[in-house]
Amino acid sequence: MKITLIGTGYVGLVTGACFAEVGHHVLCVDNDREKISTLKSGRIPIYEPGLEDLVKNNVAAGRLAFSDSTQHGVEHGDVIFIAVPTPPQADGSVDLTYIEAVAREIAQCLRPGQYRVIVDKSTVPVKTGEKVAETIKRYCSKGCEFDVVSNPEFLREGCAVADLMQPDRIVIGSRSQRATDIMKAIYEPFHAPIYTTDINSAELIKHAANSFLALKISYINAIAAICEAAGANVDEVADGMGADKRIGRAFLNAGLGYGGSCFPKDIKAFIHISEELGVPFNLLKEVEKINSGQLDRFLQKIKNKLWVLKNKTLGVLGLAFKCDTDDVRCSVSIELCQRLLNEGALLRVTDPRALAKARAVLGEVNVTYCENPADVFEKVEAVILATEWKQFRNLPWRDLKDKMIAPIVFDGRNLLDYKSLRDMGYDYIGVGRP
Ligand code: NAD
Q1: Residue 205: pLDDT band by 50, 70, 90 thresholds?
Q2: Dist. CA 218–CA 284, nearest whole Å
Q3: What spacing in Å lies between the alpha carbon of 84 and ligand 1's midpoint?
Q4: In whole angstroms, what is the distance from residue 92 CA to residue 245 CA?
Q5: Phi and psi of 151, rounded to 5°?
Q6: CA 272 to CA 279: how far, in whole Å?
Q7: For the stretch 300-339, what's the b/e string if a residue is b when 16 or more beta carbons lie within 10 angstroms of its beta carbon?
Q8: Helices 263-276 and 282-306 sit at what angle, rounded to 10 degrees?
């Protein structure tokens, strides 16, 4: 099938590449000309495992191309996916200007007698589909035929290619059988269960799912605080809870809390949406409160141990918002670094993929960027693990200890084997661990 993605970011690019991989003919459009020329020159603007090969192979096979023209995109695709940002506004509501702008641009490019399915893949508040349809109707020429569909995306950065190639489920919110049949044909090669719903329900599924995952994270973080007060071990509590199939072990890892470009904004948005609908979702306010408290509590532990932070050099392992990505948007690790810098600390930081993007945010003052994680340990008063990259577990911790002024480790992700670190002579402080 001929498919267009408007918005070639984390979602648009990976989705476009995966659609091409199963045989569709895909055009990825973006109004960021630099991004499109980077892609046209064979370079990939983001890091995502497996993405580079996927893009290169499908471009070479003639199934994947890039353009900065919406007009070109609307001419190419029988189905046009919208995958543009939906950032938060100051009051927590979603800024829908990107969605509105794209809906309008598409409308102005539609031609009478050319049926198009316009699919919203961005995460949007319930009832956005109705507004997108109204907008397109308002700005398109007479006689243009189209349907609007909601198809929320559930990929996780860091394993986006795998999530898209083997999805748990596909959600298609549609009022039109013709559009639903086309959407089913697009997803047929993925062999995933398909849930067809009305548009409002599809939009709600995304916010409900992300909120529930955030709730699980805050739940275990609240348990971690109780474990610390009681001298128990949150890992063991999570294993014991998670073994129950009704609960499941996933998303029960205590730590610095959730960050990234999705959870914080989606939870805020859902709180706002529920209030606007007159049914306040107060439970989610508590989820947010627990989450923001995690970093406060962790910083307090650092201060309790090191006392004054001013002019002390600290090492930070991990800057991306999670492992296996270069994305630092709303990264808790970046916020941690900023708060340490505000206290006057000097930082030595590393990340396997996110150093360049972190440098653009943290700047050069009082931060030393280390390609080699071992260099982070050079004459530091403590090391803080902030992102759960597996390779940090396998560092030569025994040897690295001698480079430090004091062998203190703050493990913000409970990644490290605390028993062996203590045997090596480290002072280890985790989250909810004894
Ligand atoms: P992103 O910022 O990585 O990419 C969005 C792209 O849209 C950018 O490249 C931007 O230049 C482009 N764009 C903006 N306006 C445009 C326009 N008028 N025409 C063409 N291109 C335009 O964002 P993302 O992370 O891919 O997220 C996109 C949407 O998907 C958001 O609603 C997000 O909440 C949702 N989502 C994201 C993830 C994730 O893990 N990143 C997962 C599921 C859903």
Answers
A1: very high
A2: 10
A3: 4
A4: 34
A5: -140, 75
A6: 10
A7: eebeeebeebeebbbbbbbbbbbbbbbbbbbbbbbbbbeb
A8: 140
- For residues 134, 140, 145, 147, the Cα torsion angle rounded to the nearest 10 degrees is -30
Residue tagged 């409308």 (tokens): 107
Count CB atoms within 10 A of the CB of residue 108.
Answer: 14
Taking the CA atoms of residue 395, residue 396, residue 401 and residue 407 in that order, the dihedral angle to the nearest 10 degrees is 40
Under 8 Å between Cβ of 145 and 116: yes
Extents of the domains making up the chain: 2-196, 198-434
Tens of pLDDT along 389-432?
999 999 999 999 999 999 999 999 999 999 999 999 999 999 99
Centroid of ligand 1 to alpha carbon of 122 (angstroms): 7
Phi, psi of 190 (to 5 degrees): -90, -10
Does residue 144 have an active-site annotation? no
pTM: 0.95
The reported pLDDT for the residue numbered 247 is 98
- Name which CATH class applies to 2-196: alpha beta
pLDDT at position 416: 98
Across the range 120-147, mean pLDDT stands at 97
96 ligand 1 Cβ < 6 A:
no
Choice among 227, 262, 323, 337 that is catalytic: 262
Q: Count the helices and strands in the chain (H runs, E runs).
A: 16, 14
- CATH number of the domain located at residue range(s) 198-434 in this protein: 3.40.50.720
| Short-list 306, 323, 299, CA closest to 412 | 299
Pocket test for ligand 1, best of 121, 206, 261, 326 (most atoms within 8 A of CB): 261
CA-nearest of 352, 384, 392 to 158 is 352
